[in-house]
Specification:
The strands form three sheets. Strands 10, 11, 12, 13, 14, 15, 16, 17 and 18 form a nine-stranded antiparallel beta sheet that branches. The chain has a five-stranded parallel beta sheet with strand order 3-2-1-4-5, with helices on both faces. A hairpin with a 2-residue loop joins strand 10 and strand 11. Helix 2 packs across helix 10. The chain has about 350 residues and is α+β, with helices and mostly antiparallel strands. Bound molecules: adenosine-5'-diphosphate (ADP) and magnesium ion. The site of magnesium ion has 2 residues, from loops.
Length: about 350
């Protein structure tokens, strides 16, 4: 039977009206997503457990409360049409409970797979994407049995970021007595790094992507410090990095922006280090270097907006302002090609990302 006309009109109205976007997490990525959403006329509601979360200054509505509190989750879920998230360390059960009534993109199963370093690497290897060699570690003895992976990095399988929860182990005599084996770890063979790059990609639908050029990254103390576009890499490495990122996005049936972090070793081998199922720090420079940023493309994809050809306009460098680095920039007169972002975090802390600057050239 044909649908009554009135129903068709109603569906059209729904498709054409702008959704209210819920964002879980209130850090700088949440702020920059909210800014991009505003540009598209989309209202954002941030849910964060941090009363000082900086994204509250950029979003339309801010809900503060524990992620495990069902009332908070219900209040948030009722108010939004679509949900996305700015960090991956959210328990699967919480995302899954929201997903029962409102669409979450990227899908909760994708986040579950990626938030554990072991399942993430298994997924990559099962798709013939090279990673560094690794093993699951439950106690000190497991490290000794895997001494072929030394020198290596011991990382917690979950909840790590910016190098948190990581221990460098050069040999079996050097196993730190402070390691808390009530948690599970992954031991990764240390890669002799020539350089690190990242590939930011937004997938809209089957074989529908916008891909940013590879970005070259320099870390200090395992925290990203500098990003540059374009990365100084061979055409072969560039092609491989793009191919793998497309393959990952397609295989995951991913909607939104994701980032693949890569290592290149001194013999020019490419390894996928990790996948971020979200916008990424290295992609901050896309705000100034591209016609459409990684944030805007993420919003466009999750809100089912039209895909627009994404073009690089400038080469660029990004500097992360960590801890007290921010102070100098707060009072500095800047050249026209320098863009300063202050995340408006309440307290300056050592190793805390406080802001960034992008220099276009
Ligand atoms: P995080 O989740 O903290 O970003 P990563 O695995 O990306 O964790 O590690 C942070 C940084 O530490 C990397 O960008 C890289 O500079 C260094 N690192 C991590 N693993 C290795 C490794 N196996 N070999 C060499 N360097 C590594
Ligand atoms: Mg990383």
């Amino acid at each position: 039977m044909e649908k009554p006309t009135i129903k068709i009109c109603y569906e059209k109205t729904i498709i054409m009206s702008k959704p209210i976007l819920g964002i879980i997490g209130g850090g700088q990525l949440g702020s920059l997503l909210s800014v991009a959403a505003k540009k598209l006329g989309i209202k954002t509601i941030i849910l964060s457990d941090d009363p000082d979360a900086p994204a509250q200054y950029f979003a339309d509505v801010f809900i503060c409360g524990n992620y495990h509190d069902k009332k908070n989750i219900n209040d948030f879920t009722k108010l939004v049409d679509i949900v996305t998230y700015e960090f991956e360390n959210i328990p699967f059960e919480i995302l899954d409970s929201i997903h029962k009534t409102k669409n979450i993109l990227p899908k909760p199963e994708i986040n579950k797979l990626i938030q554990n370093r072991i399942s993430e690497k298994k997924f990559l290897n099962s798709n013939k994407i090279q990673t560094t060699k690794y093993s699951l570690i439950k106690d000190k003895n497991d490290i000794i049995e895997n001494k072929n992976l030394l020198p290596g990095l011991l990382k917690t399988t979950t909840l790590g970021y910016d190098g948190k929860g990581q221990f460098k182990i050069n040999n079996i005599n050097e196993i730190d007595d402070n390691i808390d084996f009530s948690k599970e770890y992954i031991l990764e063979k240390f890669v002799d790094l020539q350089k690190e790059i990242s590939l930011v990609i937004t997938r809209f639908d089957k074989n529908q992507y916008e891909i940013y050029n590879p970005i070259e990254n320099i870390h200090e103390n395992q925290i990203l410090k500098y990003s540059t576009i374009p990365a100084d890499i061979s055409e072969d490495i560039k092609k491989q990095a793009i191919k793998w990122a497309e393959y990952i996005a397609e295989k995951l049936n991913y909607i939104g922006t994701l980032c693949v972090e890569y290592f290149i070793d001194t013999n020019n081998n490419l390894y996928a280090n990790e996948i971020a199922p979200r916008v990424h720090n290295s992609g901050h420079l896309t705000i100034n270097a591209y016609n459409i940023s990684q944030f805007e493309n993420h919003i466009r994809a999750v809100c089912n907006f039209k895909k627009i050809e994404t073009k690089q306009l400038y080469n660029a460098r990004m500097i992360n302002l960590i801890g007290e680095d921010i102070l100098e920039y707060r009072n500095k007169k800047l050249d026209k090609n320098v863009f300063f972002y202050d995340y408006l975090k309440k307290e300056i802390k050592n190793k805390r990302k406080m802001g960034h600057v992008t220099i276009i050239e």
